[in-house]
Structures are given as C-alpha cells and as structure tokens.
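EI: anyone free to look at a 255-residue chain?
SC: sure, send it
EI:
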Amino acid sequence: MALATRDELLSIFVPIVVYWVYSGMYMMLESLQKYKFYSRKEEDEKNLVSRMTVIKAVLFHQTMLSVINLLAFKLQGGSDVGEPSSSFIDKIRQVVVAFAVLDTWSYFTHRYFHTNKWLYRHVHSQHHRLIVTYAFGGHYMHPIEGLSESLGSALSVILSGMSARTSMYFFSFALMKLVDDHCGMVLPGNPFHFFFTNNSEYHDIHHQLYGTKYNFSVYFTFWDRILGTYMLPSSVDNKAKGGSQERQAQEIKAD
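SC: here you go
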C-alpha cells in the first residue's frame, strides 16, 4: 500500500511550494520602499532573530507538518472522502466551513498563547521576535505552536469533509494569505486588501508592543470585534511611528 495517494501528496507539498514562490515574489519587491511599513535598517535594528534563522525554522516547521500529514493519511487508509464527485456547490460549502473552523481555532489558540504567560514566554514569543515582519516569516514559530496549527488544519478538513484535492487549493490560498499578512507591505491593487480587512496592515499592529493584545484573528475580524480585541489599522500610523514601541532595549538579539 502506497504511503499516500497522488492527491494527498499534492495537498501536502503544493501549498509549501506556493508559500515559498509567493514569498519570493515579495522578496523581489523589497526595493519598493514607498510601499513598505518599515525600512531594512529598522528591520535589522528591531527584529530579535536573523533571516537565516527564520528560514531554517520555517523549513523545519514545514518538514514536521509534512511528516505529520503523511502519517495522518496513512492512518486514514488513503480515504478519498468527498473526492471529485462533490459538486461545485458542495466544494464552496466545504471551503466556507473550513475557513470558519480554522479562523475560530486560530483566534482562540492564538489568544491563549498570549494570555497564558508560560506559553507566551516559552512558545509564542518565538514568532514575536519578528517585530518588523516579512513574507516568509509567517511560518516562523515554535514546534508546539506548529502542532497546534496542524491540529486546527486537520479539524478544518475533517469537519468540512473536503477532499485531498480540494484541501490542496484551500491550503495554498491559506498560505498565500499568511504570507501576505506578514509581507510588511501594501501593494496597490492587492486583492487581499480588497477582500479582507484582516490584512498586512491589520496584522502588523499585532506584532508591535502596543498591539499584542489585539488583532488575533487570521482570516476575518468578527471574533476580534465580538470579543473586544479589534484595533483599526487606521488608528495607528505605523510608518510615522517608525515601528516604535516594540521590544525593550535590554532584550538581546537572537542569532
């Protein structure tokens, strides 16, 4: 018996390729300073981790998730529940359910990683070493947080009933959104800013010291609005502030 079907393998590895290709596009546009929130100098001064360390951690995270997903498919026995026989309407319903599940999971786990002091200090603070975010930093996180993310992703697939093939498209889009939220830029005509108020401006606030108790949501904003953790991007001029109010001066930069 094969380790996984073709569609299952594609659902694991295509989103990762999309993540790096889309990140690479933003890396090539970094010279367009007028569209960036912060300069490279500010990034070097404020971030507590180097880009090379982030790349290594992201590759480890994605390798771990790939192994977990392969094992999950193996245990599942190569089931193709909901595979191509699903109608287009069914697929739309599955995607909507998956987004709702993943957004809800992400909001409450993300918020708990902040409110639990031990988890923040020893787990989630790793991601917040990136004060000035950039595209490929979205998957920079502690392995424990990575396991939590993996569980949320699995729940979104199980509860929505989507097939491996549909999940390939779903997670490719989800990772593009993750990259875009961390890109640290606002490009004219960006469709993510047209369709989502939860975007790079919205998430940039969360990475600043004044915004760590706000904007926990990943895709939408209704949980932030309902539970009082919503901060309007227009209420903060990050560019004018030069990204001030971040980490205290005595914090030591990580290699």
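EI: Confidence is low (pLDDT under 50) at residues 238-255.
SC: 👍
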